[in-house]
Amino acid sequence: MASMPDMSEHATRAARWRPAEIVFWLALLACGFLFPSRYLIMTEILRLGLFALSLDLILGYAGIVSLGHAAFFGVGAYSAGLIALHGFIPEPVLALIAAGLIAAVLGFFTSFLVIRGVDLTRLMVTLGIALLLEALAEKFSDITGGTDGLQGIVIQPIFGLFAFDIFGKVGFFYNLAVLFVLFLLARCIVHSPFGLSLRAIRNNPLRASAIGIPVNRRLIAIYTLAAFYAGVAGAVFTQTTALASLDVFSFERSADLMLVLVLGGTGYLYGGLIGAVVFKVLQDVFSSITPQYWMFWIGLVFVVVVMIGRERLHRWVMWLPHRVVQQFGRKASAAVSGGDAS
Amino acid sequence: MTTLLTILFDGVAYGMLLFVLACGLAVTLGLMNFVNLAHGAFAVAGGYVCAVLVNQSGWPFFAALPLAFVASALIGVVFERGLYRHLYTRGHLDQVLFSIGLVFMAVAAVDYIMGSSRVFIKLPAVLDGQIDFFGVGIGRYRLMIIVICGLLTLGLQLILSRTRFGSRLRASVDDPRAASGLGINVPQVFALTFAFGCGLAGLGGALSAEILGLDPYFPLKFMIYFLIVVTVGGSSSITGPFLASLLLGIGDVAGKYYVPKLGPFIIYAIMIVILIWRPNGLFGRTAAR
Predict the structure, then answer these.
(1) Which of A73, A174, B124, B283 could bond B240 through an S-S bridge, CB–CB 3.0 to 4.6 Å?
(2) For A203-226, what is each residue's pLDDT tens digit?
(3) Is residue B88 helix, strand or coil?
């Protein structure tokens, strides 16, 4: 039993805030004041980061490969749009939570389909659910506006105080606040015993159940939570762009999301945020070179990332930070120690 | 009654086409447990080769079909040896990412080279119009598809069950380790089968230009259909995917005719239900190990 205090001490140490993390968040906040002309793209990055954070919860921590995570994003987006359009809940923050909860309900019910079967079945079922929702949204055009999307959404001021402006300043800080709050929540969750048990399941479901972890219940819980996060990301999308169209469900959105997360690295929560920055920069560069064919280069990035190998890539990228940290006489690295990429 | 028969006939033609398009994928999934979402890209390659040969070089349609097969098979073997084989041992996430990347590249590349509009292949006059068969209108083109695909299916079944290569392949599917222990060159068997599957997809792509529509987004649009065929049918035999494609074809055509409002909704819903009910596919033993 001598190892028990060691383990809890190790877990507590892993959960402690590191200086690099505080610097990261301060830098994000500083961006809001340093680049006032770039609010729109920065908001996009934050939104994508939040969405990727949601995928990280199930992919990086629970090992569920999903090809249809856009389903929850889309449900959140349409829910927020419909709520605002019909004025059910005029206050955006409450509407945001409501949209997230609607996505979470969908996540809860579909989780039973997802936990059954192996990787391939999961892929098919998640992909199928997203396609099914897209088909539904297209068919029930009297509710969703069909291919035109929801039009005429007007978002009320946040708390009745901060109205969304055309430069996207309020949108950016709103997004940042939502991201930060949800990130804190996710950070608490993944460092809790619940989060540790999820990692055990990811590494070996059989062993995890042998030591008494209720595998299926844990997977349902995290899947529902991830659906909530994705729903919130979708709702933020609708609220900051006043737009909800069919492409929120598209396969490309789910596929790009995987690339975002893989670029940043899975299983340490910051991967999605870093990946979102890298992805948007790449997208910007590619579409400035070839506006029509940037998809080719994004595809090439997918292939190259896989061929080089994700672990190796992260080792290369983290080489300099590791060196810097080592120079200052510290053994633990700043960012990637929360867990190995799955 | 006659509409019912016409729907049935169209559905069978559609299903057979799907089978030719997707049966290569059954091997990739069943033999190497590789999730290859880029299978449709090989079909597009074949379709465009055929279109260029027929429309621009003036080849006869029936001479261009085998070349579509050969071209796709060659591309397939190059990709298998060059890229795919490095990823057999990786996790499914890597395979999914890699093949999605290939799809994206293929879509953009075809768009760049051939333009984004739908391509039509000039058909010989023999294939135009319908034959009246006891009051049931039978499209000549669809009849040809049924004949070609039916013969191919029979041939595949014979190769699998009667030839030495077929038994090697079946042995490798059942247990790759034991098979290689018995002296079967499993990577070689797989490379050949992969190339053959890609060739079939290319042939299917050329045939589908008339029915499914051939444009750069083909691999993305029909990816789910190929995957449905394989996951629902299972990949332990040829008959599983064959029956699954027939079901899918007839279901899709009938669904579009009788309840056009629901569109593809029914297909997806049925697929999810089947996968919940039998995660290894309707007819499969080892669909996904």
Answers:
(1) B283
(2) 888 898 899 889 899 999 999 999
(3) coil
